[in-house]
User: Which sequence fits this backbone?
């Protein structure tokens, strides 16, 4: 299965059509952006690490009953995936207060919450991905109530599965962002990626940040953090 035309170039990935209109190829880039593209840079090796780590997570998630877009890892940077219509929502699941939640509610980063928090943002760069609630989502037809119930159920399963995997690697899953897509027949599946770009990973002993916050906050050691995640998560593979 080969690439034909490029369908889309995002900030971290390119998406190509293939000869089969039900499938496309995702190509992960080393480019990094933050604050809706205001900050730009390169994280050497990121594309390959995110591709492999995301596929590994998704393979386990799939086994636990959440369908995903992954069909086959083609090489270091490229994966064959099911072609979907992306549901225009960023689903954020949080276990520990950090980032925008800590800021919005005036909380210290690191506070463990009594249950996971789930947030939805409308995927729209021009509007800066504003947070929306269930009522907005249904009223604007971003998703139906039925789809939203499935998305919520799947997101909480993803949280459980990732926490279990990462615990073995002495990593705390602070929060993450995922996206879903619709197949032609309307089936909701997990799409996009799960990687240090889209999750907050803290070393469970030291609380050292092992994710894109090192880039966002100019903490240094960005490449090493991504390599460390690859080593801990896939080292046993
Ligand atoms: P936040 O605290 O900045 O809202 O981020 C919550 C989680 O979502 C965090 O794990 C980083 C991830 N995230 C993305 O994947 N893409 C984004 O554009 C943003 C703002 C956050
Ligand atoms: N999606 C954000 C941006 O482009 C990146 C982030 O903070 O993760 O710039």
Assistant:
């Amino acid at each position: 299965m080969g690439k034909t035309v490029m369908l889309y170039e995002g900030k971290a990935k390119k998406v190509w059509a293939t000869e089969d209109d039900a499938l496309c190829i995702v190509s992960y880039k080393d480019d990094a952006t933050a604050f809706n593209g205001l900050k730009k840079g390169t994280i050497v090796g990121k594309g390959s690490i995110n591709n492999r780590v995301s596929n590994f997570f998704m393979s386990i998630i799939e086994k636990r009953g959440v369908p995903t877009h992954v069909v086959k890892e083609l090489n270091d940077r490229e994966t064959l995936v099911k072609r979907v219509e992306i549901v225009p929502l960023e689903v954020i699941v949080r276990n520990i207060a950090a980032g925008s939640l800590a800021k919005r509610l005036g909380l210290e980063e690191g506070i463990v919450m009594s249950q996971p928090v789930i947030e939805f943002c409308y995927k729209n760069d021009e509007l800066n991905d504003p947070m929306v609630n269930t009522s907005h989502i249904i009223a604007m037809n971003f998703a139906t109530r039925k789809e939203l119930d499935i998305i919520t159920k799947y997101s909480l399963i993803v949280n459980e599965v990732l926490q279990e995997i990462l615990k073995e690697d002495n990593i705390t899953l602070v929060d993450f962002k995922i996206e879903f897509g619709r197949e032609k027949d309307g089936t909701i599946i997990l799409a996009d990626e799960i990687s240090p770009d889209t999750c907050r990973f803290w070393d469970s002993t030291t609380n050292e940040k092992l994710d894109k916050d090192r880039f966002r906050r100019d903490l240094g050691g960005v490449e090493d953090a991504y390599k460390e995640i690859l080593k801990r998560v896939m080292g046993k593979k």
About this structure: DSSP finds six helices and 14 strands in the chain. The two ends are 26 Å apart (CA to CA). Residues 85-222 form a domain with the D-amino Acid Aminotransferase; Chain A, domain 1 fold (CATH 3.30.470.20). Helices lie at 46-63, 99-105, 134-139, 145-167, 213-216, 222-234.
